[in-house]
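To fix ideas, we reproduce below one chain and its tokenised fold.
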Amino acid sequence: MIGDLMTLPSSDCVMAEQLCLSDSTCNATYRILENCALAKTRLLSLDHDSRVRCLNAELDLGNSSLLHCKCHRRMKRQEHCLRIFWTVHSSMTDGYFNLETSPYENPANEERWKTDYNKLAALVSGSQLAGDATNPCLRATHVCNLSKKCFRLRTDYASICTKGAGSEDVCDRRKCHRGLRNFFEKVPEDFTKRILFCPCQDEFCGERRRKTIVPDCSFQYNTKPNCLWLLDSCLEDHICKSRLADFQQNCQPVDVSPDGCSVHNHAACLQAYMGMIGTPMTPNYVSNSSVAVSLWCTCENSGNQKEKCDQLLSMFESNKCLESTIWSQMHLKQTALERQEDLLYSSSLSFQGDSASTSLSSAMSQVAEGKTQQDSPKQGSMPMASSVYSGTATSWPSLALFLPLLLSPH
């Protein structure tokens, strides 16, 4: 066993690796595990003695921080951290469905983002930007466009994923997926959840919701591949494999639970589902008139692996936990605090005649990403949001002009 020197209450895997490499015994054990993981990556079959050596090396880590380390969402060296985790836990990937342990820290233990979503939403509610009240997807997009980070990262992935649409060019799916991951990782969930899970009453709204992730590039192929091919692609990628493990852990369905979930944490399941977007196993809505989701794949011609394939597909198509989680988010009611903030900010604005632009502009200068004087040298092609209402020569382009790009790729 590795000595007590290596035992820490908790740490991320990057820190744990550094500590391990400074200890000669742990270092030697870790190198064995690296070779074991490399053999798996190259699909090399290990003989009996090699498998025993790999398992013993994992056991030798004992209670060290390396064996119990986790990775944090949004951390800068996330992919490196995940590589370390799967190096230490390489024996967990022997089968298709042995990924029950997530490499990610429990969401409840991570710092919650502080956002201005409610304030920005109140500005939209009190203005003509709200558009048709029956289209919450459109409203959620307007609110996103008032946040510089949400607007920028949404525009980034929409531009990448729509490139080549309508021509003979093929979109760059890898770059499209990276752009989607950046959006869902770096934009606060107050924005992303409302955009992706907006409740719709008609197919026009449902189409906007379905097209949120630009499915022509990120989701669909010309023909549906076998689902096990998607899984193989996922298991070869540290990020996708980690997101799948997180999804399996937090969206695990059970029949005896009222909500169908084994961990009874809708927030964790929702985060895990969004984490799958931008990976080889990206899920999406299957139609404009339904909230059902699935992978873009089939289990036809699966041979003697048909049962495994069906099991994989059912994780998305007939998952009671996932269904109840999405339903709960779409029917989420405002908290008392949110209603109070909406009332406070809406009542402070005057939307009559010329005073509308002046009042909304003044409020936005304080709310929508604030500190305009500090940000102005960095904005370049992204002028102050307030200028679109004040009618100045240098204005942030009208939000409506960007909706075809962001929501209706061709």
Q: What stands out?
A: Confidence is low (pLDDT under 50) at residues 1-9, 334-410.
